[in-house]
Design goal:
The structure holds 2 protein chains of 2 kinds. By secondary structure, chain A is of the alpha+beta class. In chain A, about 35% of the residues lie in helices and about 15% in strands. Chain A contains 14 helices and 17 strands. In chain A, a hairpin with a 2-residue loop joins strand 6 and strand 7. The longest helix of chain A has 26 residues. The two termini of chain A are about 20 Å apart. The model of chain A has no long low-confidence stretch (mean pLDDT about 95). Chain B is mainly α. The relative contact order of chain B is 0.09. The model of chain B has no long low-confidence stretch (mean pLDDT about 95). The chains are: A alpha+beta, B mainly alpha.
Chain lengths: ~475, ~60
């Protein structure tokens, strides 16, 4: 029997391989043939590592045949945003500029840890150039298309990572999130996405964008896959200066604990306006399922978003200054003018934004004495059309691209762990949308417990798009 | 300062700052850079007008 990767989550695939129902080679072969068949539509992959994946699959099958344990993800395919180093190929970070970069000499730490757990890397995934965007309409590699409607964007900047999971090409993937780049595409593609606490997962070997806010994290179609992959990637790392020295937290066994004892509230004010009605309906469905009616206010969220914007622009421009001076024409027009403008920002604005960040962290810290988890929308809308410049919000036409990060930016700004939970389309032909769950630093376990509850209740789920057989 | 003067001073700042740091602004995208800088300025104003107590230090902390 063949286990189609798109029919099962990672944990089920690993179990099927371990029990001998199928083999790692069969699983990887099926995934590769599905990528060959469908990726011309979705445009998720910028590199497919068929030979090395099949060779690794054979090694895993041999290990299992000898009675050895290749790890909890033995034989499970995955793929990563193309800003993660993959030994032997250049790390594109969505750019043309880095096509001529030397091949990476080692895998990114997160990739290494997943491989050590038996997972098999199938390839690298499309993204906004240098992670500066929320749509993955990349002028060099083409737009990634939303599996629920290929006329629509997948979100970004980790658009290939979200779409590959949503389409069932891989059961889980990795992305990065600076201002919302995991949570936004997870919302628009209708899957689970976790941005852990700042510093919780090593970014070593992941091409930076704005180091003050850069995070990495997983996408999946089940909560247990999100928890397991998060657990496996934790650990200190001297290669990342912000990697946490705290002991890891095993979240997978916590999922069965339910939500008893967790205080949950809805964010009001800033987070209760500026979205399409369907988004607030999804938030209300989640709140109702959790029995939540309490509201809490995150103060100065608009200022937090503004400060995140300024710091991101300045840090991104600083990182790219040499290329901005010598080869600006090689940048994606969608990012170039923003990078160039960021290079001109007065230091005063950046310093004030970093001081505001400390003030805001203090204010939000006080909220965790009252609640454990805060609920907000993830995005103000479901997936916009490819090329859509503006969208109507509260009767006003606003720019689509920057507004997709409306609710995510004030959260990553202070490194809080946040998860996008998918609420499937309420009717046939509709689109999914995400609800954002936020917790105190290092409380990913609380987020995952709430997510598991919502999944068990059938409120949140990541079903495959109807058009996929 | 009138709107036109403010706009003129922003454009002058962009051109002079770019020159100061040795960043060529091609005519093809100079207008796009000015538009983006104007947007950043508007956003930064939100941060700059927020009163912060003097004891608040910047968030990044250096460990020697």
């Amino acid at each position: 029997m063949t286990v189609h990767p798109h029919h099962r989550d990672a944990i089920a695939i690993a179990a099927a391989i371990r029990s001998g129902q199928t083999s790692a080679r069969q699983v990887v072969t099926a995934a590769l043939s599905q990528i060959a068949e469908q990726d011309s539509t979705f445009n998720c992959f910028t590199a497919v590592l068929a030979d090395s994946a099949l060779a690794t699959a054979d090694q895993i099958d041999q290990q299992l045949g000898r009675g050895q344990d290749p790890g909890p993800l033995a034989g499970v395919p995955f793929a990563v945003k193309n800003l993660f180093d993959i030994e032997g190929i250049p790390t594109l970070a969505g750019s043309k500029i880095r096509q001529t970069a030397p091949p990476a000499r080692q895998d990114a730490t997160a990739v290494t840890r997943l491989k050590q757990a038996g997972a098999i890397l199938l390839g690298a995934l499309n993204m906004d150039e240098f992670a500066y965007g929320f749509v993955t309409e990349n002028s060099h590699y083409g737009p990634t298309r939303n599996p629920h409607d290929p006329a629509r964007v997948a979100g970004g900047s980790s658009g290939g990572s979200a779409a590959a999971v949503a389409a069932g090409l891989v059961p889980f993937s990795l992305g990065s999130d600076t201002n919302g780049s995991i949570r936004v595409p997870a919302s628009l593609c209708g899957i689970w996405g976790l941005k852990p606490t700042y510093g919780r997962l090593s970014r070593a070997g992941a091409f930076l964008f704005a180091g003050s806010f850069d995070h990495i994290g997983p996408f999946s179609r089940s909560v247990r896959d999100l928890a397991l992959s998060f657990d496996l990637m934790q650990g200190t790392d001297s290669r990342d200066p912000v990697a946490s020295d705290r002991p890891g937290d095993t979240t997978l066994p916590q999922l069965e604990r339910g939500i008893d004892g967790l205080k949950i509230a809805l964010a009001d004010d800033y987070f209760a306006r500026g979205a399409e009605p369907a988004v607030f309906t999804a938030v209300a469905q989640v709140a109702q399922a959790l029995g939540v009616s309490q509201f809490i206010r995150i103060p100065q969220a608009a200022t937090a978003r503004a400060a995140a914007f300024v710091i991101t622009a300045a840090e991104g421009a600083n990182l790219h200054l040499a290329d901005l001076k010598t080869r600006p024409h090689d940048y994606d027009p969608a990012t170039r003018d923003r990078f160039l403008a960021g290079a001109l920002i007065p230091a005063l604005w950046v310093q004030q934004a970093q001081r505001f960040r400390a003030w805001y962290r203090q204010q939000v810290q006080a909220l965790w004495e009252e609640v454990d988890v805060i609920i907000t929308p993830t995005t103000p809308c479901s997936a916009p059309l490819i090329g859509q410049e503006t969208m109507p919000i509260d009767g006003q036409e606003v720019l689509t691209r920057p507004n997709l990060g409306l609710y995510t930016q004030p959260i990553s700004f202070i490194g809080l762990p946040a998860l996008s939970a998918p609420v499937p389309a309420s009717q046939s032909g509709g689109l999914p949308v995400g609800v954002q769950l936020i917790a105190a630093p290092y409380r990913e376990g609380s987020l995952l417990r709430v997510a598991a509850f919502l999944e068990a209740q059938g409120i949140c789920a990541a079903p495959l798009p109807q058009r996929i057989p | 300062m009138s709107m036109a003067e403010a706009e003129g001073s922003l454009v002058a700042y962009v051109d002079q700052m770019a020159e100061l740091i040795g960043l060529p602004l091609d005519t093809e995208y100079r207008a796009g850079v000015i538009a983006n800088f104007e947007r950043i300025q508007g956003i930064a104003a939100l941060v700059m007008e927020f009163p912060l107590p003097p004891e608040i230090e910047a968030a990044p902390v250096f460990h020697p």
